[in-house]
Design a protein that fits this description.
The chain is of the alpha/beta class. The chain folds into 2 domains: 165 residues, 3-Layer(aba) Sandwich (Peroxisomal Thiolase, Chain A, domain 1), CATH 3.40.47.10; 135 residues, Peroxisomal Thiolase, Chain A, domain 1, CATH 3.40.47.10. 34% of the residues lie in helices and 25% in strands. It is built from 10 helices and 13 strands. The strands form 4 sheets. A 5-stranded mixed β-sheet has the order 1-7-6-4-5, sandwiched between helices. A hairpin with a 3-residue loop joins strand 12 and strand 13. The longest helix has 23 residues. The two termini are 13 Å apart. The relative contact order is 0.20. Bound molecules: acetyl coenzyme *A.
């Protein structure tokens, strides 16, 4: 069987924060941020739950699926609104769902982890037939807005897909990984803000993503040349360029949103799915590779026949 995308929805806060806005309050510049990260502006505002409900409702409307027809909600977030319950509980109520719901926290790899979990659960006896998978993060709530090494990167958004069980298999390969010894290079304690060793994260991210894509492709019996569309986590355009260059994937096969969204963690891959669909590159039968990495460190890749 396969978990096929039937609908997509996104949510971005209204407030735009430009690089010049940041340069007005800290020692940085539009030139530096654009050149070193690829980010021009980002959206800030709202809670994880609010953004997730908006994106989820749009995905359901796009799919033409009634909330009562959803069999499972999986919400990926690094920034839950409360310590307990899971943010998926509030989103469940906000969307009027009647199914099971749980959160996944695998940082920026979370949406891809959630996709693989949803696909796997569909294969269980009596497994869900329609799963709403949402990636939502309000990273601005855990960002130190006086720290130029992190404030230039992080922002808020949500993206959602309705996955539907169909007989044709479409998850050709996948890879989920973690290295908990790397917690100290990127973490956020309760009540505190994100702490990051940027250069180290950069280096490790490139290595982890390249290896993860290679593993997923090998399981699929494919090579990088077979990828039609690459939807990578949006943390830094230079990470994406380095990954493409090492894998030999032409840069024009990627769909990126980072320039106007910044790093929105769990939301970045569904934002890219939406952008890829708008750009008309997600034709049926195409080989689409989604790959993310994040705090933990965690990494996750799926190779899907669209
Ligand atoms: N504006 C101007 N100068 C800056 C800024 C800034 N915002 N930030 C750093 N600098 C300076 C540094 O002080 C340093 O100056 P020096 O040479 O005089 O010491 C110089 O610029 C270079 O600093 P680096 O840290 O080496 O800059 P780098 O090119 O590595 O860019 C960045 C920093 C953007 C943080 C990069 O390392 C990066 O993107 N790392 C990966 C981050 C990432 O992916 N995080 C998300 C993980 S996913 C998740 O789970 C949330």
């Amino acid at each position: 069987m396969g978990a096929h995308v039937r609908g997509v929805g996104t949510a971005l806060p209204e407030r735009v924060v430009t690089n010049d806005d940041l340069a007005a309050t800290m020692d940085t510049s539009d030139d530096w941020i654009r050149e070193r990260t690829g980010i021009r502006e980002r959206r800030v505002g709202g809670t994880t739950g609010q953004l997730a409900i908006e994106a989820g409702a749009k995905a359901l409307a796009d799919a033409g699926v009634d909330p009562a027809e959803v069999d499972l909600l999986v919400l990926s977030t690094t920034t839950p609104d409360q310590r307990t319950p899971a943010t998926s509980a509030a989103v469940h109520a906000g969307l009027g769902l009647r199914c099971g719901a749980f959160d996944v926290n695998a940082a920026c790899a979370g949406f891809t982890y959630a996709w693989v979990a949803a696909n796997g659960m569909m294969e269980l006896p009596h497994g869900p037939r329609r799963v709403l998978v949402i990636g939502a993060d309000a990273l601005s709530t855990i960002t130190d807005w006086t720290d130029r090494s992190t404030a230039i990167l992080f922002a808020d958004a949500a993206g959602a897909v309705v996955l539907e069980h169909r007989p044709e298999p479409n998850l050709l390969g996948w890879d989920l990984g973690a290295d908990g010894s790397l917690v100290p290079i990127l973490y956020c304690d309760h009540g505190d803000t994100l702490k990051m060793e940027g250069r180290e994260v950069f280096k490790r991210a490139v290595r982890a993503v390249v290896a993860s894509v290679e593993n997923a492709l090998e399981r699929a019996g494919l090579t990088p040349d077979d990828i039609d569309v690459l939807l990578p986590h949006q943390a830094n355009i230079r990470i994406i360029e380095a990954v493409c260059s090492r894998l030999g994937i032409p840069a024009d096969k990627t769909v990126n949103v980072i320039e106007t969204t910044g790093n929105t963690s769990s939301a970045t891959i569904p934002l890219c799915i939406d952008a890829a669909r708008s750009a008309g590159v997600l034709h049926e039968g195409r080989i689409v590779c989604m790959t993310g990495f994040g705090a933990g460190m965690t990494w996750a890749t799926t190779v899907v026949r669209w």
